[in-house]
Amino acid sequence: MANLLELHNIHRHFGSTVILKGVNLTLQAGEAVAIIGPSGSGKSTLLQVAGLLDVPDAGQVLLNGQNVAALTDDARAGLRNKTCGFVYQFHHLLREFTALENVQLPAAIGGSKPNHARAQQLLEAVGLGHRLHHLPNQLSGGEQQRVAIARALMNQPQLLLADEPTGNLDPATAEAVTDLLFTLIAQERMAALLVTHNQQLAARCQHVFTMQEGCLVPYKPVRPVKPTAAKNLRKAPPKKPARKPAGA
Ligand SMILES: Nc1ncnc2c1ncn2[C@@H]1O[C@H](COP(=O)(O)OP(=O)(O)OP(=O)(O)O)[C@@H](O)[C@H]1O
Ligand SMILES: [Mg+2]
Questions:
Q1: pLDDT of residue 128
Q2: Distance, CA 167 to ligand 1 centroid (Å)?
Q3: Domains in the chain: ranges and CATH
Q4: Does ligand 1 have an atom closer than 6 angstroms to the CB of 153?
Q5: What average pLDDT does the chain have?
Q6: Distance 164 CA to ligand 2 centre (A)
Q7: pTM (2 d.p.)
Q8: Whose C-alpha lies nearest to ligand 1, atom 10?
Q9: Ligand 1, pocket-test mutation among 44, 49, 196, 211, most atoms within 8 A of CB
Q10: Arithmetic mean of pLDDT, 209-234
C-alpha cells in the first residue's frame, strides 16, 4: 500500500537548541500511530512538521508521495487544508465564533461554501448537537476538545494529527473522547498521528513510538510482573476468637 506520510531524517532546531535530530516515520492510509515522550522532547514540534504547519531545517516530508518542500507557501497551505486535520494541544478555538462556526472554519479557509449540515453532523457525532451556538467560553474543557476534533474533521482529511487530544480531561471524558476518536478514524478511513500521554489511547494504535533524544524509537512497554508467587503470599486464615467460658 502507498504511504500517506513519509518523514525522512527530519531535523529542527530553535537557535542553538536542536530538538529533532533525524526523525523517520511512515504512515499508511488507515493506520494510527501514537507518539509518547517526556515534556519538551519535541512531540508537538514533530507534529507541526508532519502537519505542514512548520518547515524542517533538514529532511524531507512527503505527503501522498509529494515532496512538500517543492511547494510554494500557498500551495503547501492548500495541501494542508485539503489533506490534514489538526487538533491542537490547546484547542485554539476562536473565541468570538460559536461551536458551529468554529467547525466550519477549515471549509471557509479552503474557499468552500458554508456547509452547516456537515458541521452540525460532526458536532452531533461528538455529542454536542445541543451546543451548536455556544461560544468556546460557554463550553467545558471536554466540550471544547470535542469541538476541536469536529473542526479537524470538517474537510474530510486523509490525515488526522492530534496533539494531546485527551490532555486536561478527566479520566471518564478522556475515555469517551478516545472512543469517539477511534470511531471517527474508522468511519472516515483516516490515518492518524496522535501525540499522547494516555496509555489507553496509545494502546489502541497500531504503532507506538517514543521521542528520545530527538528521534523516534519503537516503544516497548514494561511488562507487568507475573503474580507467580502470589499464592504463597496468601494471608494466614484469621484465628477463631477464643470461646468465652460458659457462664462468663
Ligand atoms: N518556536 C520555538 N522557539 C523556541 N523554542 C521552541 C519553539 N517551539 C518549541 N521550542 C522548544 O522545543 C522544545 C520541544 O517543544 P515541544 O513543544 O515540541 O515539546 P513537547 O514534547 O510537545 O512537550 P509537551 O509534552 O510539554 O507538550 C521545548 O524545549 C521548547 O521550548
Ligand atoms: Mg506538546
A1: 94
A2: 16
A3: 3-221 (3.40.50.300)
A4: no
A5: 88
A6: 7
A7: 0.86
A8: 14
A9: 44
A10: 74
Around ion ligand 2, which residues have CB less than 5 A away?
A: 44
Nearest ligand by distance to the CA of 40: 1
The tally of CA atoms less than 13 A away on the side-chain side of residue 179 is 9
Q: Whose CA is nearest to atom 6 of ligand 1?
A: 14
What is the pLDDT at residue 216? 97
Q: What angle do CA 112, 159, 163 make, to 5 degrees?
A: 105
Task: Tell me how far the alpha carbon of residue 40 lies from the centroid of ligand 2, in angstroms.
Answer: 7
DSSP of the chain, one letter per residue? Answer: --EEEEEEEEEEEETTEEEEEEEEEEEETT-EEEEE--TTSSHHHHHHHHTTSS--SEEEEEETTEEGGGS-HHHHHHHHHHHEEEE-TT----TTS-HHHHHHHHHHHTTPPP-HHHHHHHHHHTT-TT-TT--GGGS-HHHHHHHHHHHHHTT--SEEEEESTTTT--HHHHHHHHHHHHHHHHHTT-EEEEE-S-HHHHHTSSEEEEEETTEEEE--PPPPPP-GGGGGGPPPPPPPPPPPPTT-
Torsion of CA 220, 60, 153, 107, to 10 degrees: 170
Which whole number is the average pLDDT over 70-77?
93
19 CB within 6 A, ligand 1: yes
- Which residue's alpha carbon is nearest to atom 16 within ligand 1? 42
Which of 143, 142, 206 lies closest to 174 in space, CA to CA? 142
